[in-house]
Amino acid sequence: MTTLGGLFDSALAHLTAAAARRPVTVAEPDERAAALAAGIDQVLLQIRKGLGPDAYPPAPTAGEQLPTPAAKNLDEWLTQASARLNQARQYLHAPGGVRPAGPSGTRIEAAAQALAAVRDTIGSHFGPDRAPLTPYAHLLSNRAAVDHIASRYAEVARAGGQVLDRIAQAGERNPPAAAEAFAAARACLDKASALTRATAGDPAPHLAAFPHALPVIPVQDSPDDPTTAVTARLAEDSERLSMAAYTALHDRDQQRFTGPDLHHTARWNSLTRLLACRVLLTASERLPDADRNIGHDFAQAATALRQSAAAWEETATAWHDVADPREHPPLPGSEIDPHPATVISRTTATRLGRLLFGAHWSPMSPPGPARPADEIFADTDGPGPLAASLYRLPSTGWQLACVAPRVVERAGDAPSHRPRMAALTTAYSAVMAAEQRSAGHLLHAARRAGTAVPRAVLDASAHWALATEQRSAPTHRIRPAHHPTPCAAIPQQPMTGPRLHLS
Fold it and tell me: How far apart are CA 274 and CA 352, in angstroms?
């Protein structure tokens, strides 16, 4: 999963490797000083783009101004460094449009691409009008976040200066004026790094886990997908469901949830929690005696997940009661054109079932015997990563349950539906409480097993934003009928297959 921390670390690694190569020699014509300098200038350009006005949310926290002094200092000194690099290239009589080549040039270009991906990752949380698309977008609307990103950019700029040192070491091939310009550019980058660190506020290390937001499209699993990829795919599913929840809250989703959508989503979420419960119980059977505390944590988390499954099932039952045409007028919607989030929920259940039972399992299949615990641990990298991966299920489920009452209010806005909305709101409140307990137990299990979950800090802030905005979100539809998105074919009776029961 792409994260801000991973992209910054990638850019740093590439520049560090480029700086560590031996000085440029005549025997390496592909690594001419002018070409490498042009590459570093592109790196600085990518950083400056990341500091521009479009890099920030449109509505910063009250009383704060963006960009911050740290970001302004960095931009100012990067501009001066670029000017010195242009001077050096002129002294070297470098033609315009020259691109870096050779091993170092490839590394420098890769660093620039990673920095461009930083902007893409931040931008993925905003729409074309710069309105937030996920609850995580608000994490960027404060000084701590902007200063953290500026500090990471400053690290990359300093690493770029080390590459310039390597270029300047080929002094016998460079005119003295060019060598002086390279030294001045390096000094500017050192100054940029020092001033950014000095003026930045408290660090925000949790932003290293800030993810690339994924669109709400109806993805499906395939028997050909390896079980080793399940945890990564579960993370992707969670990102899509998080965006689905947030855009539904603000009536910005391309396809609105309907009564059948929410009913079937609840059924799939119930099945997913039961499968996660069974995964933990199966895995705990093979933990060594030295890890008995982890086994105890797994058992507690399994119990909590079983309660989450029951809460989701009760919500699905409440939807069934509300939508029963024998008792009430039907709520609007169709099972033939399901919401992408409903498809994703089914896909999540399928992925987890295949981790537990094997690659050819489907929700319509009998459960059968579980795979050996050793195989499950091998596919998930051990007890800690397994618990951290399963944590994403209740964390995202909480978000869906949080926004559902407002979505329900819009879906059932006819007078004949309103008296029945209270039962659904109560059911979703019970889901939120159960999912909160499940997430807490899984986090505890992951940390006990030695796996940090920095994503949990992001989720806590996102949950606060959702809970706050849920109270002020529109109660009536604020836009015309939905624009249909591509729909995946799923069974029209999605839960007619055998259910998984745990005693």
Answer: 10
CA distances from 458 to 135, 237, 238, 390 (A): 9, 17, 13, 16
Q: What is the pTM of this model?
A: 0.86
Residues of the chain with pLDDT under 70: 22-31, 52-66, 94-101, 170-174, 321-336, 411-420, 472-503
Q: Give the pair of three-digit tokens for residue 58.
A: 């449109």
Instruction: Find residue 132's DSSP bridge partners.
Output: 126
Environment class of 324 (CB within 10 Å of its CB; exposed 0-12, middle 13-18, buried 19+): exposed
Alpha-helical regions (H) of 202-291: 230-249, 259-284
Structure tokens at 291: 């890890």
Phi, psi of 3, deg, nearest 5 = -135, 160
C-beta neighbour count of 5 within 10 angstroms: 15
- Could you give the CA distance from residue 494 to residue 146 in angstroms, rounded to a whole number? 45
Contact between 181 and 85 (Cβ < 8 Å): yes
- Give 3's strand partners: 211
| Residue 296: other Cβ atoms inside 10 A | 14
